[in-house]
């Protein structure tokens, strides 16, 4: 129960007096418990927020949320500014079109059905992936006689390859206004998700923001020939795929722990560590209620797909 809900706890136990030890009876244990409760009560009166909103770099110093949240807030603000700038660009473009066209001949700017379906299907795909481990394990064990970790790893590897390749072979042509609105929705969703995650796990939110936001700020709905660094953006965004980035992190951690091993041994260790990390994250999610796997599949993966669609869509810049 304590581990499942992340409750920090200690165990105090009294013992009888032995040869050279001091007796810890019920009275002494009670004094210790009372002192801890009084100390926490006094600490709560001094703090304006709850305990988990403070960082303790040492035993006599603490950092308030008002200090360590500022860098993350600035990063999130840049995402909102990016979304606002794209929206303003759309409004200016629409106003210029209104000056050139009559109201009777005006064509609808946004295809709401197409935009809503794209956003909805991306999130449905993420939710299905989040709920798929039982199905993948069942299929792998009954049809291919695979172990649980092998079934899950192979299934998620195939899903990763599918999400990476389907936009390379299924190019589409879409209106500039529609794909721009999809980009705005994805940016707002990313910023909102970072704020929500930061309230529960500041480290995860900060790492995600530092890694993802610089690349996302460079993603803009443009024609393929309008961006000189499009190929580098593709490579960077592929490396930021939730499953690809986790594999890279595990591989780097394996190298730090076994720097003297040859390359084949490191690759094999990384392969095994990736399988174990995937299984452990799913087990922690199902049994102990850990949110990391759920956030990676139901939040990060759909947003990654939306930005991948923005990058791989063939569009034309409207004439000014």
Automatic annotation (TrEMBL):
GO terms for biological process: attachment of GPI anchor to protein. Coiled coil: none annotated. It comes from the Eukaryota. InterPro entries: Gaa1. The keyword Transmembrane applies. The keyword Transit peptide does not apply. Keywords: Membrane, Transmembrane, Transmembrane helix. The chain crosses the membrane at residues 67-90, 110-131, 151-169, 181-200, 206-222, 234-256, 291-311. GO terms for cellular component: GPI-anchor transamidase complex. This is Glycosylphosphatidylinositol anchor attachment 1 protein-like.
